[in-house]
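Hi everyone,

Forwarding the result from last night's run.
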Amino acid sequence: MGLNIACFCMMRNESPIIEPFLDQCAEFFDTLYLVDHSSTDKSLELAENYGLSGLQLFNLVSRGYPQSELATFFAHHAFDSSQADYVFFLDCDEFLPFSNRAALEAFLLDNQGHDIIELPWLNICPNDLAGGNIFERSFRRGIEPSKYVKVILSKSAHQKADNLKVHQGYHAVVAPGHNLTVGKPGKSWLLHIPIRSRVQITFKLVAGHNRLVLEGGLLKKKEGTHWKDLANELRFRKHSDDFLVDLALNYPAMSGQSDEQELDFTFPYIKSKYMESSDYVMMSSIALLSDVNVVDESNDYSFTLIGSSGKIMLSDKKIEKKPMKMDKLKIASVANIIPTDNKPDVFSNLIEPLFSLPTKMPTTAWSGHIPFLFVLFKLLRPRSYVELGVHNGASFIAACTAAKQYQLNTQLFGIDCWFGDDHAGHYDGDDLYNDLRSYTERTFENARLIRSYFHEARPTFSAGSIDLLHIDGLHTYEAVKEDFDTWVTGMSSQGVVMFHDTNVHDRGFGVHRLWKELSENYFTLEFFHSHGLGVLFLDSKDPRIALLSGLKETPEQWLFYRDLISLVAQGLPERMGWADASQHVGELERRLAEANSQLDGARHDRAAVLNSTSWRLTRPLRALISRLR
């Protein structure tokens, strides 16, 4: 009879990786004690629907993070009630380096003389941090394992020491008065994926830092201090993917070994996809926001563990104190991005639109600003939109999509000569113009392309008729100033003007100069990614932009929101790739169904001919003709 192996895991908002993690559990463990710590995404639903044999689900209600208490409780429970031979303690980003259950059992039998087995982390990182299915791609790994280990408990440890306690993080076990043997097998590691994507690491660090601030006792005991350091490092500095890879391979240290190599393990037991959905990002934001008002000066938190039947399994029976006032919170990453009095409006108007997709996205330097364009359309509900400088139509198609998505009667105008300029490059734009016009006319209502110079098209629009203007033509100071001065007279009193390339300071670009001048006289928002986007509001008191102006008034809130937009935008090309692929597959399936239908019709017609009287009567003639050939 084989070994009985159990696993304990706590999760919170792990929907992208929970199914691959459950694939692992299905292969290796007889019992999984999975404790959900108030997830706000679909983690719990995915776990419930997975159908894992041996899964026992629990819900943790706590403002703190009693990881040590719960791990200790379930360790004793597994040995006493489930007759487990071994208990593993894993997080959802940790994976065993064995190909199957037989290999794991062989490893455990080789180390059966020890009460505790220590597996050091081997930090690994996806080569691509865009947020796609990481298990279909290659990983990088550090040359050396981490100094941090995770413990595996054997039944002998429980039998020797009924007072054993698992430490926070599952890095060590203490058993006062008992001498437990520890095995440290060489060349056996626990594969740890601390950074799976740019978006994921942002939320992980914010949540980890905030949790420590909320539960100050851990910091006093020097537990989890790396969360604070890492959150501050990413919060106040901008870093490339190379920095994130280095951070992942040296985690939780800020830096260290720079040597790396390709991981030669391919996770054969993982069948599910890793998937970062818009729901995951949005719900992770909600989770951060829900933490802001739960700080307790006493650092004394109660917790209650509830079983699937609703029975209370464990509680420390403490009474929580009243929360601190929000202005006393000291959270570096600013989880309180959204005012508490209008959270539903903010999510609906400022966050949800960020995850919209245009119907089509040509290659463009403007892709980073498409998410916020959807926000503007939802907030402003413009009567008219005018774009100066359309080129291949990426931003124009996004604007048309937003108007269609929000069922607006917006009149949309794209104006360009379609032969380029010194900054965009010169080109023969006849085909580009004709293709774009054909696409927009058949896809959208109220969309019109005007092929002319900007100043020649200006008389087409009466004063006060333009609600949203996008200036993206020639980028010299003189040209963009002329565009603004010429067209601002056509704007409505609450009009909004967008300027692209406000963050480009070379090649004769002068948008940044005009932007600096205008920012002194108008309420503005500026984004620095994707070459920069400036958004100018002619009426700073416009009630439609109250949510945005509220964010801008609190610099830390605005910085967080701006960073969130940049993160969402980074995944847009890949998400569009998925959408395009899905549409392509749908088109192929439609064509296949049509071909099958035609084939069935042809077969039916052939059968009718073969069974007809005329076919039978002409058989001798056909035979004669075939002999003469």
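The two ends are 76 Å apart (CA to CA).

Cheers,
N.
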